[in-house]
Specification:
alpha+beta, 2 strands, 98 residues, two-stranded antiparallel sheet, single chain, elongated
Amino acid sequence: MALVYALPVLVFSVFFYLPKFVETTVSYDERNDRHKLDVRDLRRDEDYIFWYVNLANLLVTGLAPLLALSLLNAKIYLVIKRRWKGPMWRNTQVTRCL
């Protein structure tokens, strides 16, 4: 059952971050006996930096989760508010803790 929720998130994450895997290359420097991380032209492209690195990451990792949390919290609040006024709560002694 958890796979139904986890699989779409996993697939989206892999495809969304796929360009990150091709931004750099690892090479071996034989003179210094070290590995070296080289930046490809894609990472230097101004359009890529603006549209993917800045804007897409802001939307996917910032605004979309904020919007989702806000909408879900509002929905939970409205359900609690509606049920609190319902007939079940009128005849009981319940202390409100909100």
